[in-house]
Amino acid sequence: MLKYTHDHWMASLGLPIHSGYFIEDLGAVRLGHWPARGCDAAFIQLEGQQGITETRVSEVPPRGVLPPVRLAFDEVVYVVQGRGATSVWAAGGARKSFEWQPNSMFLLPRHHFHQFSNTHGSRAARLLHYNYFPLLLSASPDADAFITTEAPDDAAPVQRVDLEALYAPPSLRTTNPADVIWKRRRQVWVGSFFPDMSAWDRLEVNARRGAGGRSVAMEFPGSEISCHMSMFPARTYKKAHRHGPGRAIVIPAGEGYSVMWEEGKDRVIAPWKPGSLITPPNRWFHQHFNVGQSPARYLAFHPPMQFDGHAERIEDRARDQIEYVDEAPEVRDRFEAELATRGLTSLVPPDAYASRDYEFTPVSV
């Protein structure tokens, strides 16, 4: 299998590297100690990420404060479990600090130091990190050029951003027909700190993917990392679709499973719950099923813009999305069987399987 510079760098650190197609519980993955970062951590390299995006888990011990780190690239952090605070600053500049909780999401801006602390006295905090570091290492294979752990006072200053403005409450941006990133999205929320993605209620109807779902698109100021979140009702499922590589999908709420497959090949079944992680490989169809009794949410982090399929953009709907009327019978059969084991029945209306133009009633927020 092809190895990228990022693969060799990860191996050199001696930390666990978890591979495959999904992680059922990020809170339970095995970690190893990372002396340079002063914490326990592990890399999560799922199929479809190689050479494009990095995900890893780090742990901040109870009442712990990790050493400062400065990255030359943007990184987005999602809080899997725990409560704490993060400080961000440029060398010689003022600090901006903010507190986080489970399901918080925030940006660590490039060329700025950051430092994590755990405010809980007896429970470790676990963080999921997402970035595009593999691309940088392929262009310039010197990790030390991108990561600084020296004393902050000794670091060269950089052009500073207004951290108060950067971490202001998210604002709404209206898209236009020429917007390449968010075609077919009317609105995008722009911000660097989102307090709780399991409770975010500013969602738009997304009829194209079925199930009566709603979704929201989000950008991080000045960064090519973006994300979207979808919420869909209990006992329903989304239409299958496919796009490019490098995504990472984390589950803030709900119980279910996803099915992923390369056209004409066997299918991978990925069970999920809050704290699960899924990455559909490049051009693999994937489909999300909610077998619980409450709405489910999945939060998808997107790689930089040059990768096909960013922002759920599908150029050829007939080729890259499978409508309910065109599904293989076993899709519906499996879903109904999974529900039956829980004493539940499907809420997908029979008309959805009969009419290509069927429209669901959108789920309430």
Folded structure, characterized:
- The chain is mainly β and 365 residues long.
- The chain has two domains: 5-158, Sandwich (Jelly Rolls); 171-354, Jelly Rolls (Sandwich), CATH 2.60.120.10.
- It contains six helices and 27 strands.
- Strands 2, 14, 15, 17, 18, 19, 21, 24 and 26 form a nine-stranded mixed β-sheet that branches. Strands 1, 3, 4, 5, 7, 10, 12 and 16 form an eight-stranded mixed β-sheet that branches. A five-stranded antiparallel β-sheet has the order 9-8-11-6-13, with no helix packed on it.
- A hairpin with a 5-residue loop joins β22 (256-261) and β23.
- The longest helix is centred in the C-terminal third of the chain and has 12 residues, at 329-340.
- It starts with a helix and ends in an 11-residue tail after the last helix.
- The model is unreliable at 310-315 (pLDDT under 50).
Q: How many distinct helices?
A: 6
Query: What is the makeup of the main sheet?
Result: 9 strands, mixed
How does the helix and strand content classify structurally? mainly beta
Helix content: 10-25%
CATH architecture of the largest domain: Sandwich
Strand content: 25-35%
